[in-house]
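ok here's the first one, seq then struct tokens
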Amino acid sequence: MCASKSATEGDMAANQFRQRAAGVLSTVTLTMVAVAMLVGAALVESKLEALLGNRIGGFIASDDNRAIAFQRIWRSTYWAFGWTLPGTPDLDGLDSRLEAAGLKLGSPVLVRIFKREFELEIWLQKNGRFERFATYPICRYSGRLGPKLKQGDHQSPEGIYTVSAGQLNPASRWHRSFNLGYPNLYDRSHGRTGSYLMVHGGCSSVGCYAMTNAVVDEIWRIVTAALNGGQKRFQVQAMPFRLTDANLAQRKDHPLHAFWTQLKTVHDLFENSGIPPHVDICGQRYAVSPGSAGNDGSRSLTRSCKSSNSVATN
């Protein structure tokens, strides 16, 4: 009787071990398959422009493109497994975070995007100047560093945009979204084409900035409160990377250096003052001048060459 019982217990233990082992193996296999699929997608996305001279698309030829491709891999993997991206604020504690920062919902908002760093910042106005409230990890955007040029190039925009209430979509295919307003006057002056370039939920992109559903819910709450509070539109500064002197100098030979130098003027004026600069379009260049105290960034881009601090382009 005892021997039979021991044998039964032994069989049960063996079965449990096999089940656990099978579960672990299944998890490892699924993880490997997911990573392989994501690597394959990144390789396709890099377009494999050439296979000569140690060049495999952007992976080897460009540190930026290689880094961006691998960022996409691990971020998409996190999202696929339902994990929260590192760097995500405490989304359940919005009210307490606002209180700790001395900020409040309904204050004017400004958004900054940094593609190379995969970050989106929310700034809120306080006493006439904007203070950075939150930095969110971008789950995915498509393309490389550089502006969107034409419909179908899969590039995510770079430039200065404004967003009004009419550009918000609460029933987006990707949960919630707001339209950046591409092409703006600058884009159109260069003959750029495309439409419906968004900041939205999820983690998939064809020219948009995907933030995950949970993150876009918090962004949505902040920007709708600002618009409902009286801000006519909010400014979005979509930058290729953090436009420090050092970062721009590293790319001094890049074909887009002149364009990025224009964006740096906007970047630096806001960074140094906390006040959105006035941005106009003069011919085919951004014309930028310091904003006045209390400016909330709601002014639309217009065609004007009156700025005393306009920046020429090649």
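and now the second one, same deal
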Amino acid sequence: MSRDVRPWQDAASARARARELAPKIHAARRLVIAHHEAGHLIVAARLGVMIDQVSVEVARRFSAGAVIVNHNGQPPPQIALATILAAGGEAERRFTGAEPRGIEADEAQLARMSPRTVRSGRVRARTMVERLWPYIDELAKILADPDNAFMSGESAIFVALWAVHGVDEARARVTRPGHPDFGC
């Protein structure tokens, strides 16, 4: 059977197809990372742990996200920290339906905690991510936009509340900094 396409034409069309798909793949990676980081942030906020900032960065060869916790002089209790660390992976799992990837830094911190604390934190994270999913999902959609890939924790919490409830209700639910009312 003869082929009507030369090998170099196959390679050229594959490169063209890759260029065409690259923005879609990039956007999909951003959305996964945004869900992971939103999971950390929303669960932390629900536990009363203030977050300074959240960011999502996806480049050609690497992807990164970060949630920076404001310790106010003392770290959160170990069970809260374990829950927050596990929440990123749980949110990613809930969004993708697959095992989370790129959670090595979270797992390294969890490995320094007692196995009982980690188990309890994972169970709490799973439950909290499920309850808080509307906030996590809406915040992730906003963080996935490259123009919104970096924001303060306070702004991110307000944006999540606003996306779910509207601006007036969001204002009413953020009466005390660090203690948003997610209603659950």
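notes on #2: The chain has a mean pLDDT of 85. The longest strand covers residues 51-58.
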